[in-house]
Fold this sequence. Notes:
This protein is of the alpha/beta class. It contains ten helices and 20 strands. The protein starts with 13 loop residues before the first strand and ends in a 24-residue tail after the last strand.
Amino acid sequence: xxxxxxxxxxxxxxxxxxxxxxxxxxxxxxxxxxxxxxxxxxxxxxxxxxxxxxxxxxxxxxxxxxxxxxxxxxxxxxxxxxxxxxxxxxxxxxxxxxxxxxxxxxxxxxxxxxxxxxxxxxxxxxxxxxxxxxxxxxxxxxxxxxxxxxxxxxxxxxxxxxxxxxxxxxxxxxxxxxxxxxxxxxxxxxxxxxxxxxxxxxxxxxxxxxxxxxxxxxxxxxxxxxxxxxxxxxxxxxxxxxxxxxxxxxxxxxxxxxxxxxxxxxxxxxxxxxxxxxxxxxxxxxxxxxxxxxxxxxxxxxxxxxxxxxxxxxxxxxxxxxxxxxxxxxxxxxxxxxxxxxxxxxxxxxxxxxxxxxxxxxxxxxxxxxxxxxxxxxxxxxxxxxxxxxxxxxxxxxxxxxxxxxxxxxxxxxxxxxxxxxxxxxxxxxxxxxxxxxxxxxxxxxxxxxxxxxxxxxxxxxxxx
Length: 465
C-alpha cells in the first residue's frame, strides 16, 4: 500500500535534516556554548524553535535507525554500531522516512555518514534514497588499502567507491557534503525534496577544512564546529536564494552526546550529566533546532519530550501521507512545530543502551532502572551509578539528574516501573521481545574496496596476582 497519491509540489513542504555526529548538548551557542561561536545556528534558533528535550540513542547506528524507521533501535535489531564489511545492516524490508517520501513524489538524497550497513543491499540507494554521497560509516573505521598500503576510508557515490581518503583527505568532506547539498537544492526547486545531511563531523579523528584550522578559540574541535556552522549557513542561504525558505522545514540535531573521554577532541554536555554511550541525559539529549519561517514561530522554545523516532511520522504527516500498518514508536509532532498545539503528543521516552532498557522518562520524571555509566571510554563510575536499585530524578527541578527522589515518591516509581514493564514485554530488555523485527543479513560480506587482511589482536598474557 502506497503512502498516498502524489499531489502538487506546492502542497508538500521540503525537508532538510541535518544530523551531526557526536555533538554535545552544550556545543552550540543556542544551547549555551561560550567556547564555540555559531552565528548561523544562533540565527537559525532566533528564526525558529529550540527543542530542549529532544532525544536520540547512545551510539551512531542505533540513532540513525531510529531516525529513519520511527522505531526504538532494538525494535529493528540495530542496538549498537555496525562495522565495515559486517554481515548485518538495516533490513531493506523496513519502511524508511525516505521510502515514504519517495512514494509521495519527493526527490530524496543522503549526503554524509550512513552507518546502517555497508553491503550494497543496506546502502541508502536501497533504502528509499535516489542518490548517496559520503563516507558510509564512522571516519575512524579506516582499513588498509591492498593497493596503496595506506589506512583509508571510502567516499561513495551512490553504490560505487568514488575515492579513498587518507586522514588528511577527510578535510574535504564537510565542504564537499555542503556543496552537494546546495547543488541538490538548486536542482529541485520545482518539486518537493528530502535532503538528509548526516555529517561526518564531529566524530574523531577531527579534520576541519584547512580554511577553518586555527580560526576558533576552542582548538580543533571548535574549528570543526565553526565549519559545521558555516555549512548550516550555506544550506539556509541556498533555501533563501531559491525562495524556498517558507516551504521548507529544516531540523538540526545530533546522533548522541559528545565523546567526552576524548578530552579536547570531544564536546561537552553543558548542564547535563553523562556523554556518548550512556543513557544519562548527556548521552542522548541533543541540541535541536527546527526552522521553517512563517510556520515555526521565531524565537520559540519547547521542553516537550520528542526524539529521533518522531521524525518519520512528522514528515509523512506534513507531506500528506499515511503511515502503513506497521508498528513504530514515533509520534507526529507537527502540531507542536506549527504552533497548533503546545504538546508534542508524546509523554514518555524509553532509554535503551544496546538491547537493555536502562531508564524511562514520563513528564518531568526519569526513572533509572539499574546501573549506568558516564559514557563511552570513561572508567570513573560514581557510587550512585553503580547501584542496582532504581533511582528517580525530577528533570525540571534538576536537569543534572543527581538527587535520587525514589524514597519520597514511591507512587511515581510504581507508575514508571509499570511503563518500563510494558515496554519490556514488547521490545524486551537484554533479550529481544516479541515486538522485535530482524536486521538485514548478508552472507559472505566484503569490504567496499580491496583491503589487506587485518592482523589479529595480540592476547594479553594473564597476570599473576
